[in-house]
Amino acid sequence: MKDMLKGKVAIIAGGTSGMGEATAKYFAREGATVIIGGTNPKKGERVVDAITAEGGTARYYAPLNVAKMEDCTNITEKTLEEFGKIDILVNYAGKSYDGVPNMTQDEKFNITIDVNLKGAYNIVNAVVPHMKERKAGNIILCSSNGALNPTTPAYDYHMAKGGCESLTINLAMDLAPMGIRVNCINPGPIVTPFWDELFTPEEADARKATFDMIASKEVPLNRMGTPEDIAGVALFFASDLSSYVTGLRMYVGGGMGYVYAHGQSAILGNIPVHE
Predict the structure, then answer these.
(1) Set 26, 60, 92, 157: catalytic member
(2) Which among 25, 32, 134, 159 has most CB atoms closer than 10 A?
(3) What is the pTM of this model?
(4) 215 pLDDT tier (thresholds 50, 70, 90)
């Protein structure tokens, strides 16, 4: 299919890299005007240039820190000033602060909740009033497989992402009578710049070994995911292909979250399977 989002205007918070960048490019290829949100102007302009080079339309107005309501209001107002509407909001903005040096537990907890949960609440509340006026809109939030199916403890981050799922359900219920759909993506292990903070370029072998272990032990499909795997689901939620879907939390993790992985099967033992 072509032009599934023709004429649509989409804000993508966290659109400067990884899953957000891939989604921005997918949306632009399907005809959407894409507004890139992120804290790093250099990365934002790089994504805009890449989309423009392919013939798409994209903007990066100013740094967006979703933890700051004024930043969320600013990107909303600038989008409306130039394009007059906002059809789609996607929020990938988020980060885990586990392992950050020189940060107390309280500091880590507060910044994790501010960025990952309060940030989602802020960007939604900046955009929703406009969508209510038009009685139309499409919101896509991002949680994590680990929110309810953790493979390792990450209390602050997983708590925040679990809150995003609750936000999805409450928004979907509240906004459905106005024709506004709200859905949530729950990514599994996706290869994004997140991993660059955990492994130096000199640790390429350790990085590959980690990916191989995760894929073989935790993912039924036996591979790590890509940003494009997430972008495809975002496109489904953003397009009319999902016009009768709202309030859905979709796991996108190669079977993680809803199919027994190899490690879980080993724990359960030999269970007879009907062939």
Answers:
(1) 157
(2) 32
(3) 0.91
(4) confident
